[in-house]
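Format notes (please read before filing issues)

Several people have asked whether sequences and structure tokens are stored in separate files. They are not. Every record keeps both together, in the order shown below: the sequence lines, then the token lines. Line labels are part of the format and must not be stripped during preprocessing.
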Amino acid sequence: MPTVSVKWQKETFPAVEIDTSQPPYVFKCQLYDLTGVPPERQKIMVKGGLLKDDADWATLGVKQGQRLMMMGTADEAVKVPEKGPVFMEDLPEEEQVVTVGQSAGLFNLGNTCYMNSTLQCLHSVPELKAALQNYTNSGRSNDLDQFSHLLTVAARDLFSELDRTVRPVAPLQFLSVLRKKYPQFAQQHNGAYMQQDAEECWTQLIYTLSQSLKSSNSSEISAVVKTLFGIDLVSRIRCIESGEESSETESVYGLKCHISQEVNHLHEGLKRGLKSELEKASPVLGRGAIFTKESCISNLPRYLTVQFVRFFWKRETNQKAKILRKVDYPLELDVYDLCSEELRSTLQTPRQILREAENAKLGLKVHNKNSQENDVSTPNPEVAFGNSVESSAATSNEGALSEKKTQLTGIYDLVAVLTHKGRSADSGHYVAWVKQENGSWVQYDDDNPIFQREDDIPKLSGGGDWHMAYICMFKARVI
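Then the structure lines:
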């Protein structure tokens, strides 16, 4: 990677590295971080002409130590009001972003919308950000590989940068380490990086963080990813021919919504996703046989992730095809009937308390048969009651983690949607739609955050070529 100097106005930046494996647009993003001049306004002279976003570095012949000239006007800095009350509606749009706590956008570094949308969804989880802040550069344990450690550090630094600025961020370091840790994200076609599957990126990142944070020396975050996203399943496995039965348990980081002609709603797809058939050896029959597997949830997370299984391998075209069928999903999801009998019994009392607390807020009269069981004198949903389920919760605006006992109710509120537009997982465009702390929604289309109405979020349900939900993230409603 050659190092050049860049002169802009009265400033000179003496050591700017050019990654010649990336398009010049990435280099412009680096200069944006240094100067505040957006890439579309930059005019960089190279070999007597202007540097184009998609130019080939090999033909430009940029040499080590070469001096480049850049022209362009920087964005104006956000000004802080001096005195007097100011209403959010009267502020410039960038200052409104700061007011509502919305994070900045992320530059697309060449078919990286799959990564950007994943990062924006996960960045909205304050407990995860708090855990990453506690992760130190020296926090790597002996059983953690180098790139897992570096990817965790890159995620920590990137999330911090998103919280510090209103200008779009170029996730160069994170992308570089992601491709080294998982080479599939570095695949190229005709010299350009290929589009990748956002669900695969989400899964790999969650797995990496679960390993690195668990390996951290900090006891406060020893199991944060499992607590936040982990789902325990218990399964009943039965042979169709012999009737023999067995059971097994497993932990996953998300549920799958299987789509068929009979599935019109997320809940129906989740039920199908918990049932399957598999072929394995039967000790009774002494040969292979078909078994049915029926699973239910035995432990719930703070954040429930659901993937709509929209892509499948089509043999005729030898590529991934997409199911465009419309599948409705709610702003409020109740998974009570997907849980095991034991978990249901644990959820019953918290659900009753939550219902009565919500009724009290609406001014509805509550008839208490048992003052201890149905007490709604403290309807704060963050208050713990009696014997409780362990769960990590954010106890301050900064999202600091503390282990406190809360009770899950099996009811979840939608807080993020990752959508896909196009006909194939390896093409098209990914976008994140994230609920802010103040209840408003923002569409993160790479470096362009756009405010959205909550009424429009459930409309991302498919049925055409527009953006449709691929991953939904729900936050638990607790008491």
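For reference, the curators noted about this record: The longest helix spans residues 341-361. The domain at 3-71 is CATH 3.10.20.90 (Ubiquitin-like (UB roll)).
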